[in-house]
Amino acid sequence: MDLKEFEQYLDARGSDWSNWPESIRDQAQSLVSELSEARQLFEEVEEFDILLAKGSVVSVPTSLRNEIFRRTIRKSSEAEQSLDAATWIDSIFAHIWRPIAVAFLPLAIGLAVGFFDQIPVDDLEVEIVELTFTDYQAFASNTNGP
Which domain holds residue 43? Predict the structure, then answer.
């Protein structure tokens, strides 16, 4: 077992040897006894585990708890009032403006396509006149074909 693997197991299992798998426990204990770096890591984790075990729950003063509850209730009632206004506005939007927006969307797309894909009338007229007076038989007879 190397130091990196030992550190990973130490992070996962802690300093209590009973939490370690039996197959690795002996290797880890021998590494702690041989390497000072491993011993230092183990002592740091052991100290941290002791501090966690000594930790106790701090009681909250009653006045602070009551103030938190009072503010929470006030905030929730304000949220309910704003929620009522939001649902009213949303219902108007859903019933009136949404169908208008759906009907207007194809119109807007059509206008945009027509505006940006516009051939000037003069060029269109010139093309039509040229196609009308083209003599295709003379064009076909002048070509040197097989």
Answer: 3-54
